[in-house]
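General statements about sequence and structure are easier to judge against a single worked case. For one protein, we set the task of working out the structure tokens from the amino acid sequence alone. The sequence in question and its structure tokens are set out directly beneath this paragraph.
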Amino acid sequence: MENLNLNYGIIGNCKSAALVSENGSIDWLCLPKFDAPSVFAKLLDKDKGGSMSIIPEKLLSTSQEYIERTNLLSTRFVCEDGVFEVIDFMPRYKYEDGSYYSPADVARVFNRISGAPTFKIVYDPRLEYALHETFISEHTSFIKAITKKGSYDSLYLYTDFDFKKVINSETITLTSSKYMLVSYNQKLLRQDIHRVKLKMERTKVYWLNWSENTTTFSKYNDEISRSALTLKLLSYDKTGAVLAALTTSLPETIGEVRNWDYRFCWIRDGSMVVKILTQLGHSTVAQNYLRFIVDILPEKDEKMQIMYGISGEKRLSEYELPHMAGYGDSKPVRVGNAAYKQKQNDIYGILMDAIFQHFSLFAASLSYSEDLWTVVRNVVKMVERNWQKPDKGIWEIRNESKHFTFSKVLCWVAIDRAQKIAVLLKQDDYIKKWKKLEDKIRTDIELNAWSEAKQSYAQAYGSDDLDASVLLMESYGFISAKDERYKSTVYAIQGELEHNGLMYRYINQDDFGLPKSSFTICTFWLTNALYKIGEKKAAIERFEQLLTYSNHLGLFSEDLDFETKQQLGNFPQAYSHLALIETAITILDGEITNEEKIMDVLRYETFH
């Protein structure tokens, strides 16, 4: 069986992003934005998907690393006839007027280090999800790829390599620095190695400045920094949306059908991401995201969906691409996500928690505050109407709706945070009424969510099944880590859901049967919970072991195989990286003072 490890690096510019394999092949890229049809999709079909690969003729070894504290990726090729590196990036930097240069481009800089290395470049774009043939033609200043059937699309390649050698995949000898620039748009200015290297240096400076704004810690700093940089890459600058992951249809289990398109903005995921990035000193991501929320909820009676397109689209119709084999032959390959129609009542609390954090830390403009206050009051109304109803829950069960404990707790969170926001904004008239609703929800949870048989809060009302999401009751302030009921819940969930050091989300069968892989975030949640109830040594050991399951660049996908620890599911996964940061902060709590934390959060420098 072929090697299916997700040994990829991500490069991007908050407009789109690409995955570059450890051997320097670009195997996933959608242009001009994250959710556009693929240009390269070898990740989903090694024969039909298309890629841009580098094939050295006398290769001895390759190695790959990010340029420190940036999203520029260096792949080094050691060959019998010489050594060279390829630096991949997507341009992103700030102009003097404050606007950003972030074109739909991928740049590759080839640097000779020693000798005269020889290699072939296989440039094989397959536009529009490879639905029809892509045609390549040579022009005066670029190589153009186009479709002639189906939706028209085109792609431009600028390079100072010999065009014919690139088109025909002929041997190239590297004697000096060269470049390749893949662009969705035709360039107005002449491209050359000097211009591309200038873009590279400006992009490097942008990311170094961004990283300088990230709170630093005495331990786990590299892991926190890489996770923060990855989360930033999953934000869409144009609207403020935050993606759940870069890819579609990477399976939770090889050969099965849990393959979903994650190139959308889930209210839950996005709210969690902006909360954690704000804790690390990056307020702009949160401000842009909350503006996205205000823009998609323009009317006071607008129903909130669990997810939206990154440009604010509300219909995310799901369809399949049957011509694609799928990752590891795991069909179907899906575009769109039918889960947008689901009801998940936990989104209200998670969004409200992020809004409360924003009001707690930052002074917003009056009009912006009024917009958010309207959202707050509307969310309270939604909770009033929906908290007693069953829903699909955090795991998006596609069949039966239930009274999920996590959903109920997050409805409580929504009302709790709404009151706190009302206090901050001096809107005291609302507090008494909302307090009654908060108490009513809490009482309902205490009466119905506890399982005497398991001595634990259960997955759903009237059930003895357990669920990892219930571990978050403490994180959201519903219960104290010192409460015996919470301690008992943590031990019960660990005892029932842990397997080979990793966690199931749940073990009761859903509409697709028993899950066969571990949802990475759940193991971070358990680690976090164990530390908080006093199992500090065990938590630290578990955390450090979990860090070893990342890929060679410190990146995590959605899932891990229980036996092999192989990464599975969409990649890189925002959920996994935000949980890594949150758990590290829990373990390191006390290493920086509250005053220092506040100063880190409030830093507002030129680059964000």
Observations:
- The longest strand covers residues 105-115.
